[in-house]
Please model this.
Amino acid sequence: MFATRPDTRPATVEVLVDGTPVRVPEGASAAAAVLAAGLPALRETPVTGAPRLPYCMMGVCFDCLAEIDGTPNRQSCLVTVSPGMRIAPQRGARAPL
Model:
């Protein structure tokens, strides 16, 4: 009468969040990895230094800006994780071009 449920847990990948290895589901966003890591803040506002974490998770608010694989100012909620990805907090304003 009852069938067993298939194992539907997604595969995981390991990423580095501020130097700490974190395993997240394949296909998750870099912002989700940051939240899973439990960081107190992902970036600081350039003017007041107020701490920020991902907020809207859909690319509207820009509170999730991070340095991803050495590239600063990336919206981490719009970036899908890949094995070995390095996600680092963004400190202050970016350097002018």
In short: Helices lie at 30-37. Residues 15 and 84 are 5 Å apart (CA to CA).
